[in-house]
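Final report, Chapter 2: Outcomes

The project's central promise was a pipeline that accepts a single protein chain and returns its three-dimensional structure in a standardized token representation, suitable for archiving and comparison. That pipeline is now operational. To close this chapter, we reproduce one record exactly as it appears in the project archive, with the input sequence first and the structure output second.
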Amino acid sequence: MKIAIVSGKAEGPTKLNAFDNALIDAGIGDVNLIKVSSMLSGNTEIIELPKLKAGSMINCVLSNLTSDNPGDNISAVVAVAIGDELGCVVEAHATNKNEKDLLDEAEFMAKYMMEKRNVQIRELIVKKATTTVENIASVVSSVVYLEE
């Protein structure tokens, strides 16, 4: 299995447009995203996001947050834990939360999921998008499942 881990942030004139702009910034704005749960096959390979065909149906784990409250600090995080047998993905998001605390929370959840499955973690990646809202802003972090 191959995955790409992406993130983006953007402002827009409406909440929907801010979200769409954040998707574009992450490189996944021209496809249809299908939210899936959090499991990966063993020895999953992380690659750079390839060019995706416009209109494609793409499976992903998506963390996103949008705010229209100027001054808010918004964050979206994904954490990926990969073992030889399987892998797990978690997502988290928060407004005005200490960034380190949010990253630690995502890492904890991924480690816990692997521990409950008795799988040794070989690789652990945490990716975030953070911005301070000027007018209307959105952040996204996503694990994109790619066809083999």
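Archive annotation: Residues 99-116 form the longest helix (18 residues).
This record, like all others produced under the grant, will remain available to the consortium after the project formally closes.
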